[in-house]
Structure formats: structure tokens, C-alpha cells
Amino acid sequence: MDQKPAVNRKIKVLIADDHQLFREGLKRILNMEDDLEVIGECGDGIQVLEFCNHTRPEVVLMDINMPIENGVVATERLRDIFPEVKVLILSIHDDESYVFETLRKGASGYLLKDMEAESLVNAIRSVVGGHAYIHPKVTGKLINQLRRMTYLDEIGVMSGAAATKEAGVKFIAGDNNPLTRREAEVLRLMAEGKSNKLIGEFLYISEKTVKNHVSSILQKMEVDDRTQAVIHSIKNGWVTL
Predict the structure, then answer these.
(1) Residue 197 phi/psi, 5° resolution?
(2) Three-class secondary structure of residue 4 per DSSP
(3) DSSP annotation of 209
């Protein structure tokens, strides 16, 4: 159902994505709507904060994988400084760990880039109206993850956001830890010597998704391989054997 508001005004939207062609296509789609106006484009998280310091959008469509400062960090900083600005994550990742992390950082919704234009437009209107919006494709995964987290907590494997412990390897989440919860799980299993295939089977995700998480871990830690990542995490006290 179309959620277009009756009030004749334009919702100011900022697009944050490091792919220029994607931004241009999205801008054309949104500007076709009478009540939406794209007032700017950014290619990284730092630019988002700089833009909002001068021009205040109502909604930021935020990609996760951006250079310099990613969408997760940018979302947290943006919501701290400008709490009135709504953040809608628009990503290719349908992994529930990204959803948890971005919502925890203050995002009002999580969308996938393969969604229909009409649904995207309605999601923007919805969050401006004070509601949250999560793409239907990730809702089921989100529910399954919540059930899994509840089960792990009940059996004492996991206690809140502080630590996860299995098979003798413990992962400690600290203030200086840049990893998402799912990346933390992957790193812990890497420390146990598990391959990408085994990690995927253990976490019920595809091997390709595991590879994406490993790449993100290496990038955030600024290391070249898995061994260095594990050593780095141990030195920082994130993993104990």
C-alpha cells in the first residue's frame, strides 16, 4: 500500500554509497516522487558527517561497505550528533549480523539493494513517520538468529554482548573492538583453526558469506592474512585460548 503522505512537502534525502552509478540511478528514482528530494550524495562515512554539518537531511540512505569510514561507524556517529536524522541502511548483505549491528548503532531500518523501487520509497516515508522498516528477506533470518542467541544464552554459551565461549576459545568484546557480532563469531572459529567451509556449516551461512566476513575482519584489523588476524586479536585481548 502506498504510504505517500497527504501533506505537500518534500522529504530531504541524502544518499551515501561509494558507487557513483548506483547513486545516480537511485537519485533519479527518488526525485521522480513528488514528496522526495535527494539533496546530496556522499561516497564515504566521513563525507556524511561533513554534509550533515552544513545541510540537514531527514533521511540518510547508508551503504555499509564504504571506504575511509564504513556505514556502521557512520551510523553511530550520525545518530550521536544528529539524533533527529533517520538512517536507512541500503546494502547487498542479507546477513542478520549486519542487521543487528546497524540497528544497535541507531539505524531505523535495513533494506536490500535488490528491492523494488516502490518498496524503497515507502520505507523512506515509513521511517520519517516514526516507524522502523526491515526488508522481508532478512526478517526470517533475524528471527532465527534471535532464537539461536536465546538458546546459547540459556545453555550458558553466550552472555549478552560481553563474550561468546565454545570449544575452549573465548572472544571478548571490548570498546576498542571494531568487529560486528558475526565477525566476532567468525574470528573465534578462525582461532580454533576451522576452514571457511566448516565455519559456514557451524554458523549456518554460506561459504561465500564467510569469505566476506573474513575479508572485512582483515581490512578492519589492517592485516594480510588469517594468522595475523588471530595473533592481533590475541595481543589485544579479544581472544583467549
Answers:
(1) -65, -45
(2) coil
(3) H
Euclidean distance between CA atoms 133 and 56, whole angstroms:
22
The one-letter amino acid code at 108 reads S
d(CA 148, CA 95): 14
In angstroms, rounded to a whole number, what is the distance separating the alpha carbons of residues 98 and 171?
Answer: 18
- Per DSSP, helices labelled H in the chain are 20-31, 45-54, 71-81, 96-104, 117-128, 136-154, 181-191, 196-203, 207-221, 226-235
Q: Please give the distance of CA 164 from its chain centroid, rounded to a whole number.
A: 20
Distance CA 185, CA 149 (A): 12
- pTM, two decimals, is 0.62
The residues facing 37 across adjacent strands are 12
pLDDT band at 146 (very low <50, low <70, confident <90, very high): low
Residue type at position 200: G
Supply 16's cell numbers: 551515501
Identify the burial level of 173 via C-beta atoms within 10 angstroms of its C-beta, where 0-12 means exposed, 13-18 middle and 19 or more buried.
Answer: middle
13 near 30, Cβ under 8 Å? yes
Each residue of 155-192: pLDDT tens digit? Answer: 444 443 334 434 444 444 454 567 777 888 888 888 77
Number of H helices, E strands in the chain: 10, 10
Written as nine digits, the cell of 116 is: 523494488
Q: In what order do the strands lie in the sheet with 133-134?
A: 36-42, 11-16, 59-62, 86-91, 109-112, 133-134
